[in-house]
Amino acid sequence: MTVLEWNEQRLGVTGTVRPVVTAPAEVLSQPSPPVDPSDPQIVQLAADLVATMRVSPGCVGLAAPQVGVAAQVFCVDTSGHPRSKICHGTFVLCNARIVSATRWERGREGCMSVPHLTGDVKRATRLTVAGQLPGTGEEVVIETNAFEARALQHEIDHCAGLLFLDRVPGPHAVYARKVYL
Amino acid sequence: MGELAVTVIGHDRPGIIADVSEALARLALNLSDSTMTLLRGHFAMTLICTGEASASQVEQELAPLTAQGSLLVSVREVTPEVTPVGAGEPYVLSVHGADRLGIVAAVTRVIAEAGGNVTDLTTRLSDGFYVLLAQIDLPPGTDVAGLTARLEAVGRDLNVGVGLRPAEVDVF
């Protein structure tokens, strides 16, 4: 199966909206362990992440630590975003890792777990990521760019215990967040 | 040509920068380095300007701004400083975690003990979450790994995350 063909119905369970945890929650600052993608609890977590992302306006990705679970799982959906170019729709990845990252550009990021701040972060705009789909555990490789690449790197950072604040280039690259989406 | 240090802080409203900079321009003062920002709703500007006007002339020119009592202004004559070039290796220090007393004091003491010089620092507090970001010049030959370990130890004591990394300098 390609990532484009994937959707949350394939998980076979109904997602429940979970509360989003905010910094300084410990789980956001600790590297998460890898998971067994076929574990029913991970499948449920995948569905819950998508459900939580769906009800959160402006949210284009959500990682397990953001709902308080230390696990290398996240969902992404940059569909319809004006800065999105290549877009794989909704997908969940387990144990994702960056294979290649090039063409770095600075852009401003917000995070549901740091609700009052935004920051300028340099991210690769050409990105290849490998990971596993929840449920089947199928290994997939995603080649993407632009906004989806940024979203993937932000979520992979969450799984590594990093916030965008750990990536900003200096004292004046963090801003009070004005727009609450 | 003299240098003056001017600070303005107080209740925010549209037009403070325009009012202050117009007053300085009327006295033929050239505004050089400055920072102007909102700190928890208070507008704060700190600037260095150069020209022939005296501190008392500037205070007089800015007096209408302070008359209502919502802005505090201070003007001091300062001795021009030589900006050191290539004085150290630039690093970025980031600290974040639950707010508590003494975070800035503890981490900047570690930096100072290593001979590091903080050249820029901002902090933000929102909903009990504290973020400190600083640019630091470290003396050439600094044991960065050792300094990082000491910062991390202080971070553990304070229950905050601490990171130290080389500042990215892209020159095109």
Textual characterization of the structure:
The complex is a heterodimer of chains A (181) and B (172). Helices cover 16% and strands 31% of the residues of chain A. With 181 residues, chain A is an alpha+beta fold. Chain A has one domain: Peptide deformylase (Peptide Deformylase, Alpha-Beta Complex), CATH 3.90.45. In chain A, strands 1, 2, 3, 4, 5 and 6 form a six-stranded antiparallel β-sheet that branches. In chain B, the strands form two sheets. In chain B, strands 2-3-1-4 form a four-stranded antiparallel β-sheet, covered by helices on one side. Chain B has a four-stranded antiparallel β-sheet with strand order 6-7-5-8, covered by helices on one side. In chain B, strand 6 and strand 7 form a beta hairpin. Chain B has 172 residues and is α+β, with helices and mostly antiparallel strands. Chain B folds into two domains: 2-78, 2-Layer Sandwich (Alpha-Beta Plaits), CATH 3.30.70.260; 89-166, Alpha-Beta Plaits. Chain B is built from four helices and eight strands, in the order E-H-E-E-H-E-E-H-E-E-H-E. Chain B is globular, with a radius of gyration of 19 Å. The chains are: A alpha+beta (181), B alpha+beta (172). The A-B interface holds A 22-24, 29, 114-117, 122, 163, 165-166, 168-174, 176 and B 38, 92, 94, 96-98, 120-122, 124, 126-131, 133-135, 160-161, 163, 167-168.
Topology:
The complex is a heterodimer of chains A (181) and B (172).
Chain A: H1 40-54, E1 61-63, E2 73-76, E3 91-111, E4 114-132, E5 139-145, H2 146-159, E6 174-176
Antiparallel strand pairs in A: 1-2, 2-3, 3-4, 4-5, 4-6
Chain B: E1 2-11, H1 16-26, E2 30-39, E3 42-51, H2 55-66, E4 71-78, E5 89-98, H3 103-113, E6 117-126, E7 129-138, H4 144-158, E8 160-166
Antiparallel strand pairs in B: 1-3, 1-4, 2-3, 5-7, 5-8, 6-7
